[in-house]
From TrEMBL:
PROSITE patterns: CYT_DCMP_DEAMINASES_1, CYT_DCMP_DEAMINASES_2. This is Cytidine deaminase. One of its GO terms (molecular function) is cytidine deaminase activity. It catalyses: 2'-deoxycytidine + H2O + H(+) = 2'-deoxyuridine + NH4(+); cytidine + H2O + H(+) = uridine + NH4(+). The keyword Disulfide bond does not apply. This enzyme scavenges exogenous and endogenous cytidine and 2'-deoxycytidine for UMP synthesis. CDD domains: cytidine_deaminase. Its EC number is 3.5.4.5. It comes from Electrophorus electricus (Electric eel). One of its GO terms (cellular component) is cytosol. Keywords: Hydrolase, Metal-binding, Zinc. It is an enzyme of class 3 (hydrolase). One of its GO terms (biological process) is pyrimidine-containing compound metabolic process. Belongs to the cytidine and deoxycytidylate deaminase family. The gene is cdaa.
Length: 161
């Protein structure tokens, strides 16, 4: 694996350019991203590593907030970073936490957020010791609502009788 690391002022603001993809390395980056989590209220650290279609990897961690509903999950953090840099097509996301006995699973909001960018990309859910299960976004959110639903015969409210 050939990797070029582009660092910005803070270590958590990194973007990796990869020329080949290693699932093991991808999961390792998610575990590393977890170390930057800001979780003083939930005490639940989560990291994510998102692989774009061109091989760029964006990492994210969860960020708690005293106003609980304003916190952001690691998955949405990584996706937002990628989108803000012009990426819209993703191959995979790896998610890591400190959970020992079950795999970390994205919350419902993150599943819908991932679905916004397609159904056919991989989600690696890990345990603390590194084992994982792989699912597709479609598996995590079956019968979902997405962008194409807004394009298929939706009548704007102002035009309804």
């Amino acid at each position: 694996v050939i990797i070029t690391l582009v660092r910005q002022p803070h270590p958590s603001h990194s973007c990796l350019q990869t020329h080949t993809h290693s699932d093991t390395h991808h999961r390792h980056l998610a575990m590393e991203a977890k170390t930057f989590a800001y979780s003083p209220y939930s005490n639940f650290r989560v990291g994510a590593a998102l692989l774009t279609s061109d091989g760029t990897v964006f990492t994210g961690c969860n960020v708690d907030n005293a106003c609980y509903n304003l916190g952001i999950c690691a998955e949405r953090n990584a996706i937002s970073k990628a989108v803000s840099e012009g990426h819209r097509k993703f191959k995979a996301i790896a998610i890591a936490s400190d959970m020992e006995y079950q795999y970390i699973s994205p919350c419902g909001g993150c599943r819908q957020f991932m679905r916004e960018f397609g159904l056919d990309w991989e989600v690696y859910m890990t345990k603390l010791e590194g084992s994982f299960v792989k699912r597709m976004v479609e598996d995590l959110l079956p019968e979902s609502f997405g962008p194409q639903n807004l394009k298929e015969g939706v009548i704007p409210v102002k035009n309804r009788n």
